[in-house]
Amino acid sequence: MMYIIAAVLIWVAGWWLNVRLANGATSDRMAVKFMIPAIFGLTIVIVWELLVRGFEVNPVILPAPSSVLLRLVDEGPILWADFRQTILKGAVSGYVIGTVAAFVVAIIADRSDFLTRGILPVGSFMAALPIVGTAPIFVKWLGSDWESKAAVVAVMVFFPILVNTVAGLKDTSGMQRDLMRTYAAGYWQTLFKLRLPSAAPFIFNGLKIGTTLALIGAIVAEFFGSPTVGMGFRISTSFGQLALDMVWAEIVVAALAGSAFYGAMTWMEKRVTFWHPSQR
Amino acid sequence: MKSVLPVLTVIAAILGIWLLAVIPMNMHLVADQAQRDGAVVQPETPAARQGLSGAALAVRNPALIPLTYSFKRPRLPSPQQVAGEMYETIFAKKITSKRSLVYHGWVTLAPTLLGFAIGTGLGILLAVGIVYSRVMDRSVMPWAIVSQTIPILALAPMVIVVMGSMGIQGLFPKSLIAAYLSFFPVVVGMVKGLRSPSAMQLDLLRTYNATGSQGFWTLRLPASAPYLFASLKIGVSASLVGTIVAELPTGARAGFGARMLVGDQYGQPLVSWAALFAAALTAAALVGLFSAIERITLRRMGMAAA
User: Fold this and answer.
1) Residue A32, domain extent
2) What is the ipTM of this complex?
3) What is the pTM of this model?
4) A236–B contact, CB cutoff 8 A
5) What CATH number is associated with residue A117?
6) Are residues A79 and A149 in the same domain?
7) A–B: how many Cβ contacts below 8 A?
8) Which residues make Cβ contacts (< 8 Å) with residue B256, sequence separation at least 6?
9) pLDDT digits over A192-219, tens only?
10) Which of A261, A262, A265, B9 stands 20 to 30 A from B154 (CA)?
């Protein structure tokens, strides 16, 4: 009972603090903008912990944050090995392959207006499909190690990046292209100096969509067969052992990896498209 | 209309690549089978064939090439085999049959639509809260954005099992995942949409002495419609993907995801491929439906996109 009362009190206190901060005079400062969601997140975690203790929730259903944290610290080497197998080998290599392939196809398609008009609708249609369902097929073809995961990831990220790149390459005005022509610039010069830079905001949009897809593909594909290491493998086996705190620890790792991956792309976008209105 | 021909060309190219790929992908299996049936195959031992690529094997045994397209358990089925299986399981079976894809499609579609409706409803509510409450904007919005970078879909099967162990089964666990996946795109899109009226338009309403709720119903909500539809299209396909993934490794007995897995485990690749394509068609139909609603609604509202 004590825990539940404490949970309610902390929730009210956290909310009150945020109301004060958000409506206060300093609410537009960078630090405060960062603090408010941090307080909100922390409040939720504490309330979760207290409620799990207060209601004595079975850890098979919902583990307490503290036991998840304990797992994160204790099982560090295992989590690191899983991270390497799934994220570094599976997701990142597939992401790179898919991106390069999408780029090559986009630049080829871009040379002909006919192909562009064909690839845009087909590509955006494919991007909406449940491509992750091909995971069992790829596992069968390429074996259970990271190659099959990379293949699933490559196909998943291919279409959003392709569509965005093709759309981005069309995003120059006739005036700009005429200017390049008056400079006597050839096709490749125009591509590298004008069209790829102005396509960059679109390309990064596709790359950012791809980051989450890459992690999903790599983890889900492991459910269909994997060596005895990997985040998807660990999630499904820990689940079989009813070690839900381990499952949640992997979720935390996946969440951190996903945010870091996305953050890295956003950082690159800022560096590359500093000239774009949305970045100024 | 003028993009019909290019689209058809691209589709034809994809089909062509597929047709070509069928030969080398299935050649080894076909050669083994042909030898067992008494045909003469070059080279003669399976071990020697293993060393060759599928294409090289096809060049040495041109007579076997047609067989790769009708092989019973292929590594890569040919398009006509998949189409045949789909016709068989969609039209030729009774809808109530356990082998009918229409039946499995409904098992997947029902939780998708229910979850999508729940997720959209809650998403719109939260978006209204975020637009009107500064505290919610500042504390929830960053998490809504961060949550989109988290591969939560990978956990869908676990959610199903946890709910199952709590005694909740059937439609609801799958709809929960579908709801979660459509929730955040709708929140982010609606917040953008509700904020899309310019300061000038808001000021105009103020000079009319409009109340807050009048401002909401006559300006903010209509202005958000294009954003809402863009989010709905993303959300509905995300919901469908979520339901299918939720069905995949959880031992679900029915649904597209279950069909894909059954075909995979019992060596019936045609079943997997037919389910995969049926799922793709369903996703396309859902997105197409919302595009049509979008076009009609926006035209009626006088916002027809050029």
Assistant:
1) 2-57
2) 0.76
3) 0.80
4) yes
5) 1.10.3720.10
6) yes
7) 160
8) A130, A133, B104, B105, B108, B244, B247, B275, B276, B278, B279, B282
9) 888 888 888 888 888 888 888 888 888 8
10) A265
Mean pLDDT of A223-250: 79
In total, chain B counts a number of residues equal to 306
Note whether B18 and B11 are within 8 A (CB).
no
How high is the pLDDT of residue B252?
Answer: 64
Single out the residue of B233, B244, B236 nearest to residue B279, CA to CA. Answer: B244
Q: Are B231 and B119 in contact (CB under 8 A)?
A: no
Q: What is the DSSP letter of A88?
A: I
Residue A257 and residue A214 in contact, taking contact as beta carbons nearer than 8 Å? no
Q: How far apart are the first and last CA of chain B?
A: 15
> Where in chain B is CATH 1.10.3720.10?
101-300
The CATH homologous superfamily for domain B101-300 is MetI-like (1.10.3720.10)
Q: How many residues does chain A have?
A: 280
In contact, A147 and A123? CB cutoff 8 Å: no
Per-residue tokens: B236: 């509905």
Q: Which of residues 160-179 of B touch A (CB under 8 A)?
A: 161-162, 165-166
Structure tokens at B158: 């676990």
- A-chain residues within 8 Å CB-CB of B134? 22-23, 27
Q: How far apart are CA B270 and CA B83, in angstroms?
A: 10
User: Do A115 and A184 have their domain in common?
Assistant: yes
